[in-house]
Structure formats: structure tokens, C-alpha cells
Design brief:
alpha/beta; three-stranded mixed β-sheet; 9% strand
């Protein structure tokens, strides 16, 4: 119960602090009316998460990232929306983001896409969080100095002492929690700072140190947001729809990242789709009363775990406290000075910056650091949407560059050293070794796109410029996972190069999808007589070997393979008659079956035989192909 009360007090302070981020500068007058809904959101989310999620002792809290971006969007409403519509428009934006986040999380959970966050580049996510941390620090300072963001600099009317106290209190909270982490640090610091303020002589007259725009007489009630839809400027919300959509997508990543963080803290697996489902329902409940988007309360959940109070009562009590404050009214929190509330926000921002920028810096490579700095700068200077888009673009660019550097040619050789599984007379083997340098064999792998496929084209082009002349090119696709349209364009250039320099192109072991693409792209076409498709590399090598031997003046070996001349050694042949017999087989007829007893020796005099085994899937795997003169 004690842990639940402590978490409830923290949730209440967080609610007051984070709601303030949504009402910066000229919007500060809406803080009081919105505070009741913020407290109700915190209560609903904490109770919903505590009752629904499988891990007991968990709780939720208003998302500072969401309120920060919504507050930035609200500043745009100041210039575009009539004053009497600004509060209704901003509160409708808050509720719509919460509802959209709830729908998205439930949809992702239904599609079982909880592992989707692992496909986002880590430096991009880290840069977004660190950039938002800087903005959160500025937002915390804005609570003590409302003109800080609106005018981009402190004015003569700005309470400089309150501004310094806010920054100092936030830094003190972060330093204490970083050096001596403990569950009671923040509650004790908040209580001590509040008590110290009110014990200072003349504190009651220092109204400039209290929350600006805090109206204890006006409160937005549940349902007021939906009843006031007629006063909403939907055009302004539509203009900010791109930023809000990116915010919803990013909050889904935050929920999944929080779940992964809690796995480390708790030392147990938290099913990501269950996390999505729980916080989807919680955000729908919050949005239904016109409340704020919410995420996991990492500090409260960790506190309950460390105190061995992981029961559902903790989360319920943590939700009852802000609910009671909401029932008593905003005046119940009027004793908190602005620098305490703003300092808590500064503390959260410093945690983000320290964890996702400063402490992370050493663990990243040069490319990841570049992405991180670019995203942080973009979020801090241009905005959340711009930083999100820039981060994704940089992530894609660096991925393409890194992927292009991967070895797509897994193995390169020539027919001088790589032969098919065909047993040939020694004379033919010698001819193939002599002429083998004219056949280039490339075993490809990975996903081939414009960068990696271009490297294959360049390798073939460089080979055509050396001696001996290139007569054949064998490209093996056994390890290729896919090819994009730009990659096929480079393969068409290889075929055109084959036309120009008169060398054959053989493509081996293409999956069904790639074989269909090859035909659709026109790479394999009746007009391209020098291009062939073969089932595997062994048959491709066999095809090229036979064409090489057929093109030589001596031709293929055609003489029957015999060990003695029947005309010159009739007695020897007659003596062998009791040990050997002449046998003929029809095409496809088996000589020896797999598993039979081995009692015979076959000397191949005419024709060819294949030595195959049964594969695990019932397919036939060819081991060798034997011709005249082999045993």
C-alpha cells in the first residue's frame, strides 16, 4: 500500500508536469482547465494497466513525448486559430492522438507485429528520444518562464530566479538519482523543495514563482472535449495531421521500447503483443474521456518490482491518488511552486539526453553517431516530424551504403578449377583445364539491388578487358534471397555485354519467383540465344564443358572405352568371358538401386549414366555423371 501511495503521488506530479508541456507560452491559460482531464487520464491508465496486463505491479503515465509535440503543434494553432477556439482545438487534438494511438496499438497486437520496432534503425530511435529530451528540458523551463519559447529569449519580466531554480532542481534530481538511485529520492526532493519554498519569508507574495495560467476555478470535465467539437478548428488539425501521425507511430515504438526495457529490469520475458494490447485499451479509455496519450510508467513499475510489491493493488492505488486529487479539484495542487513542477520535467529530459545521447555515444560507430547527431539537431531545431523523416532517410541511406559493401559474390572461380560432377576421360579433363580460364563462375548471395548488382556488373566488365577472352559466364543464384528492379537492370546490362563480347551467360538454380522475374524482365528471351537457365550449378558447368569440348578441333571423346583390343588379344578376351558380360540399358533404367548390395563393377563403354540419391524431400540429387571410359 505504501509503495502504491508513493507511486500515486509521483503520478500526480508527473501529470501536472507533463500536462504543462502541452500548454507552453501563450497557451498557459489552458493549463488549469486541462489539468482535471490529465489527472483522470493518469488514473484511468494506471488502473487499466494494473488490471489488464499480465505483469502485476505495472502502471502507466501521461507521455511527455506526446504532450511536448502536441504543445509545439499548439503554438502553431496560436497564429492560425481564433482565440476562442484554441483550447477546444488543442484538447480535441489531445483526445484524437490518444484514440489513434489506442487503435494503432490494438491493430498491431491483432496482427502480432509486436516485434516491428526491431526493424527501425536504433540510432534513429535514440536520436528522436534524445532530441525530445532537449525539448522536454526547454518545456520544463517554460513552466517557470512562459516567455522563454514564445520569444526565444528571457525578457525583463521573466523571473530569472525561478528559471535558475527550475534548472537547478531538475539537475539536482537527475544527479541524485544517477549517483544514488532509490525509490524515495524524487518524493523526498519534491517535498523538501516545496517545504523550503513556503518556509522562505515572503513566499506567499511571490506569485511569479507559481504556475502561470493556473486557474483553480475552471476545470475541463470528462465529456467536455466531445461536447465542444463544434468549436474545433478542424482545418488547423488537418494541417498538423502529418506531424500527429508521425507522433502516433513514434509513441507505438516508445511503448514497445518501454516493454523491452522492463524485460531487462524485471529479468523476465514480456510478450510484446500483450504490451501493445494493454496500452491500446488504456489509451482508448483515456481518449474516451478526452484525455492524454499514455505510455508505461517505467519508474513506478520498477519501484514496485524492487520493493517486492508486484501486485495489482499497487497499480490500482497509484491510480486512485490522482483520481482523488482530480475529485478535490486543481486547487489541491496549488501549493506546488512552478520550479518544482518544471524541475521534474527538466529531470525527465536530462534522463533522456544522458541515456540516449551522452552515455550511448561510446557504444556507437561513426555512421551511427552521424545519424544520432543529425536527428537530435533536427528534432531540436526544426521539429519532431522533420527529425523523424530525416532519421528514416539517413537510416535508409546508411543501410544501402552498408549493404552495398557486403560481399555479394560469395565465391569466384573458373572452369580451370571447378568441374561438373561428370566423369570424363583424362584427355577431356586436360582439355577442360587448358581452356577453363575462359569460363568465369560467380556464386552470388544475399539480396541484390542497384548497389550490389552494379558491383557484379563491374566485375564482369573488368574480366572482359583481360586475357584470355571470356567465353562463358556462370551466375549461381542458390544463395540469393531476392533481386529488385534496379538489380535486374544491371543483369540486363550483363546480357548486353555478352552480346557485344560474344560470351555465353548461364543462370543456375533460380527460385521460382526469381525465374519468373527473369522472364518478365526479358533477360531470358528466345532472342537471347546466348542466355540459358539451368536447374543447378552442376548442370550449368556440365553444359559449358560440353560446349567447350565440342568447339575444340578434337571434339568429344567418341571411341568406345576398352581395356584391351579384341583383335590383338583374343585369348585374353575369351578368358575374361567367365568374369564379365555385356549389358545394355534403356534410358532411365536403373543399374544399381540405392540400398542394394554392391557386388558388381560396371565399365561404361557407350553412353552416359547418372549417379543420384534420394533427398530428404523425395527429390533426386545428382552426385556424378559418368561417361565412356569410367567405372
Amino acid at each position: 500500500m505504501l509503495v502504491g501511495l508513493i507511486c500515486g503521488v509521483l503520478n500526480t506530479v508527473y501529470a501536472l508536469s507533463y500536462v504543462g508541456l502541452a500548454f507552453p507560452g501563450p497557451l498557459a491559460g489552458g493549463l488549469g482547465p486541462a489539468l482535471g482531464v490529465g489527472l483522470l487520464s493518469t488514473a484511468l491508465v494506471s488502473i487499466t494497466v494494473a488490471l489488464v496486463w499480465r505483469f502485476s505491479g505495472s502502471m502507466g503515465v501521461i507521455s511527455p513525448e506526446a504532450t511536448l509535440v502536441i504543445g509545439t503543434t499548439g503554438l502553431q494553432f496560436v497564429a492560425a486559430v481564433a482565440p476562442e477556439q484554441q483550447l477546444a482545438t488543442l484538447m480535441a487534438t489531445v483526445a484524437l492522438v490518444a484514440m489513434a494511438l489506442g487503435v494503432l496499438l490494438l491493430a498491431l497486437a491483432r496482427a502480432r507485429l509486436g516485434y516491428l520496432m526491431h526493424y527501425l534503425p536504433f540510432p534513429v530511435v535514440a536520436g528522436l528520444i534524445a532530441g525530445l529530451g532537449i525539448l522536454i528540458v526547454i518545456g520544463g523551463l517554460e513552466l517557470a518562464a512562459p516567455d522563454l519559447v514564445a520569444t526565444a529569449q528571457p525578457t525583463l519580466s521573466t523571473p530569472q530566479g525561478a528559471l535558475l531554480a527550475t534548472a537547478g532542481f531538475g539537475a539536482l534530481c537527475w544527479l541524485v538519482q544517477y549517483r544514488w538511485p532509490g525509490m524515495l529520492n524524487l518524493p523526498l526532493l519534491v517535498g523538501a523543495a516545496t517545504l523550503a519554498f513556503w518556509l522562505t519569508p515572503g513566499a506567499a507574495d511571490r506569485t511569479d514563482w507559481l504556475l502561470h495560467g493556473f486557474d483553480a476555478t475552471t476545470t475541463t470535465l470528462p465529456g467536455d472535449v466531445w461536447r465542444n467539437l463544434g468549436g474545433v478548428d478542424w482545418t488547423a488539425i488537418g494541417g498538423a495531421s502529418l506531424t500527429l501521425a508521425m507522433l502516433v507511430a513514434f509513441l507505438a515504438v516508445v511503448v514497445l521500447a518501454d516493454g523491452a526495457t522492463m524485460e531487462t529490469v524485471l529479468g523476465r520475458h514480456l510478450e510484446p503483443n500483450g504490451t501493445l494490447r494493454t496500452f491500446g485499451l488504456a489509451n482508448l479509455a483515456s481518449g474516451a474521456v478526452g484525455g492524454f496519450p499514455c505510455v508505461m510508467n517505467l519508474s513506478g513499475t520498477s519501484l514496485a518490482h524492487r520493493c517486492h510489491s508486484s501486485c495489482r493493488t499497487v497499480g490500482v492505488v497509484a491510480g486512485v491518488v490522482p483520481l482523488a486529487v482530480c475529485w478535490l479539484g486543481p486547487q489541491a495542487l496549488a501549493i506546488l511552486p512552478a520550479f518544482v513542477v518544471g524541475g521534474i520535467v527538466v529531470y525527465v529530459g536530462l534522463e533522456f539526453v544522458a541515456e540516449w545521447l551522452i552515455l550511448l555515444w561510446r557504444r556507437l560507430g561513426a555512421a551511427d553517431r552521424a545519424i544520432l547527431v543529425a536527428v537530435v539537431a533536427s528534432v531540436s531545431l526544426a521539429g519532431f516530424a522533420e527529425g523523424f523523416v530525416l532519421g528514416l532517410l539517413l537510416g535508409v541511406v546508411f543501410f544501402v551504403v552498408r549493404s552495398s559493401a557486403l560481399p555479394v559474390i560469395r565465391h569466384e572461380t573458373t572452369a580451370r578449377y571447378r568441374f561438373s560432377h561428370v566423369d570424363r576421360p583424362e584427355r577431356d579433363q586436360s582439355l577442360l583445364r587448358r581452356e577453363g580460364d575462359g569460363t568465369l563462375v560467380l556464386e552470388l548471395g544475399g539480396f541484390l539491388f542497384f548497389g550490389s548488382a552494379w558491383r557484379i556488373l563491374e566485375r564482369v566488365r573488368r574480366r572482359t578487358e583481360t586475357d584470355p577472352p571470356l567465353r562463358a559466364l556462370l551466375l549461381d543464384f542458390r544463395r540469393v534471397t531476392g533481386v529488385d528492379s534496379s538489380g535486374w537492370h544491371n543483369f540486363r546490362k550483363i546480357v548486353d555485354l555478352g552480346h557485344q563480347d560474344r560470351f555465353r551467360v548461364v543462370l543456375s538454380q533460380l527460385p521460382a519467383a526469381l525465374e519468373q522475374a527473369v522472364r518478365l524482365e526479358g533477360i531470358v528471351d528466345p532472342r537471347h540465344t546466348q542466355v540459358r537457365l539451368v536447374p543447378d550449378m552442376d548442370r550449368g558447368l556440365e553444359l559449358l564443358e560440353e560446349e567447350t569440348l565440342a568447339a575444340l578441333p578434337c571434339g568429344l571423346s567418341e571411341a568406345p572405352a576398352v581395356f584391351v583390343d579384341a583383335a590383338s588379344e583374343p585369348a585374353l578376351i575369351e578368358g575374361l568371358g567367365s568374369y564379365a558380360e555385356r549389358r545394355s540399358f534403356a534410358p532411365g533404367e536403373p543399374l544399381i538401386r540405392q540400398g542394394d548390395a554392391s557386388e558388381d563393377v560396371f565399365i561404361v563403354r557407350f553412353g552416359w549414366i547418372a549417379i543420384v540419391i534420394d533427398g530428404p524431400g523425395g527429390e533426386k540429387i545428382r552426385l556424378r555423371r559418368a561417361g565412356p571410359g569410367t567405372v
